[in-house]
């Protein structure tokens, strides 16, 4: 049986697209059953709709607190019978309670070589620090930001003359390779906490 996966997005959704494309393969161990966005006009929603994947918008700004927003997201995930949650450019911190209730079953892709550069603006900070090596990490999500066990990483060089955009697109290309691979490992039970 394929594992039922929900993807959470906030924007463009190129990593979501990579997961949807990978999941089309007959032998892929996961199926995408829901794409949920906290932003109503997230670009990724259109792609999901075109591919006949159920979508849902839950706007965080319509909720009085982070916890109440998280509860609404959790209710949607349960209604879709999701077994695994994949954050793909999802830009809202999740409350500890939510993170704990999906412990070992929620993963994220983060654009740095964790534990370096947790949080936001990773490419800018790596450039400012003069790093020679940068990359992306797929990790299990825990209550602590960008702190859960690492599943896969990809390294890319920082090249002379790089700006944020050039570096981001070099990293993104690798993200699209490692995220589907990492989800496969989790769905097969080969990567676990
Ligand atoms: N939630 C938990 N509990 N643990 C993690 O490791 C999480 C998480 C939620 C999202 C993705 C993460 C990233 O890979 C992620 C990991 C958003 C923020 C943030 O500060 C930080 C990290 C990540 C995602 N968001 C602001 C907030 O107040 C809003 C920023 C904005 O809207 O632009 O939630 O980088
Ligand atoms: C990706 O680079 C992802 O790693 C990063 O945002 C981009 C989303 O692109 N995620 C974060 O910074 C999480 N805070 P996408 O929407 O095209 O997948």
Descriptive account of the structure:
This protein is 35% helix and 22% strand. It has helices at 14-22, 44-50, 66-79, 96-101, 122-128, 164-187, and strands at residues 3-9, 30-37, 55-57, 84-87, 106-110, 133-140, 150-157. A seven-stranded mixed β-sheet has the order 3-2-1-4-5-6-7, sandwiched between helices. Strand 4, helix 4 and strand 5 (106-110) form a beta-alpha-beta unit. It starts with a strand and ends in a 6-residue tail after the last helix. Bound molecules: ligand NHR and glycinamide ribonucleotide. Glycinamide ribonucleotide binds next to helix 1, strand 5 and helix 6.
Please give the structural blueprint.
Blueprint: E1 3-9, H1 14-22, E2 30-37, H2 44-50, E3 55-57, H3 66-79, E4 84-87, H4 96-101, E5 106-110, H5 122-128, E6 133-140, E7 150-157, H6 164-187
Parallel strand pairs: 1-2, 1-4, 2-3, 4-5
Antiparallel strand pairs: 5-6, 6-7
Kindly list the characteristics that best describe this protein.
7 strands; 193 residues; binds glycinamide ribonucleotide; alpha/beta; Rossmann fold; binds ligand NHR; seven-stranded mixed sheet; single chain
Characterize the overall form.
Answer: globular
What's the CATH first level? Answer: Alpha Beta
- Quick one: how many beta strands? 7
Structural class assignment = alpha/beta
Continuous helix count: 6
**Overall average pLDDT:** 98
Query: Can you write the helix and strand succession as a string?
Result: EHEHEHEHEHEEH
Low-confidence runs of at least 5 consecutive residues: none
Biggest beta-sheet profile: 7 strands, mixed
Task: Quote the beta fraction.
Answer: 15-25%
Question: What is the C-alpha radius of gyration, as a whole number of Å?
Answer: 16 Å
How far apart the termini lie comes to 21 Å
Strands side by side in the biggest sheet: 3-2-1-4-5-6-7
CATH homology-level superfamily:
Formyl transferase, N-terminal domain
Helical fraction equals 25-40%
CATH topology: Rossmann fold
Distinct compounds present: ligand NHR, glycinamide ribonucleotide
Number of domains: 1
CATH architecture: 3-Layer(aba) Sandwich
